[in-house]
Amino acid sequence: xxxxxxxxxxxxxxxxxxxxxxxxxxxxxxxxxxxxxxxxxxxxxxxxxxxxxxxxxxxxxxxxxxxxxxxxxxxxxxxxxxxxxxxxxxxxxxxxxxxxxxxxxxxxxxxxxxxxxxxxxxxxxxxxxxxxxxxxxxxxxxxxxxxxxxxxxxxxxxxxxxxxxxxxxxxxxxxxxxxxxxxxxxxxxxxxxxxxxxxxxxxxxxxxxxxxxxxxxxxxxxxxxxxxxxxxxxxxxxxxxxxxxxxxxxxxxxxxxxxxxxxxxxxxxxxxxxxxxxxxxxxxxxxxxxxxxxxxxxxxxxxxxxxxxxxxxxxxxxxxxxxxxxxxxxxxxxxxxxxxxxxxxxxxxxxxxxxxxxxxx
Length: 361
Ligand SMILES: Cc1cc2nc3c(=O)[nH]c(=O)nc-3n(C[C@H](O)[C@H](O)[C@H](O)COP(=O)(O)O)c2cc1C
Fold this sequence. Notes:
By secondary structure, this protein is an alpha+beta fold. It is 32% helix and 26% strand. Helix 11 crosses helix 12 (275-288).
């Protein structure tokens, strides 16, 4: 194992991948943390850094370590020192960055891990060590309960959803708005773009539709994605702003002739007397844009259609983002991230850092 981790595996990886062998690091958890420390300390110059989570740090004095050493190395003797980080570090200081993370509630901390002994030995020999005691965490790997950037996760989920073969509109979302007298309203729209760096969703609609008027009066919304097959739900809430006209023009120009005419013909959300009235409007628009009545039934565009001023793009900026993953026995994982958004010019916000909070399912 020692030769495999310290020599054979790095040689193989470095022979097939463009890796800079000068910047090697090694890390491990618990028994693996012991291995990482020992390998780094026994091979000066081979690693720039070693990091260990809850490592077994002074095995010659711990019950687990003594049992394992007796079995692998025989009776206690100087050969044990070669596998004990707290003994090896006496040869220090080395040109090596050492980082250790330990949970303050780790049940093995005092009897088995003895991380503090290692840190004391480092201090005695002048070896620099960066030691982080994580309040309340146990022997698990994680001292953070939630990833720092939820946008990267949502981006990944959208990509996974796009691969679903049995879901025709994988990027459709339910968009909820607030109507008159604070009444709730909701409908499905299509996500046309997700900016995973700034964190906004883009959709298109009629600015004079019910949702358009509601957003003009109260520019806040929530968008909900649900991917049943993946057991995932994402909820994005925040301010909604119209995008500059040029962005809407570009997208409108890329749409089919029928969709373009429909954007002119439909006074979205207004009452219609009959289907015949809607078709008459489409005939009228086909003629207005250089075709014949009935041409709207064909996909081929006889002429260019300009964007109606009442139709365009919105950005829903994530002020909060909740990611939900289906769990066993209805113990679903829910993490809610929130951040501040400072206005920064037309259609823009300057987002602050995310704060994460786990929620009960
Ligand atoms: C799968 C699907 C995708 C839709 N995408 C959009 C869309 O991107 N934009 C839009 O205005 N309406 C879209 N609609 C229609 C809306 O759900 C809704 O009927 C229409 O926008 C009027 O809503 P409102 O009266 O609340 O404004 C979509 C409907 C479905 C079922």
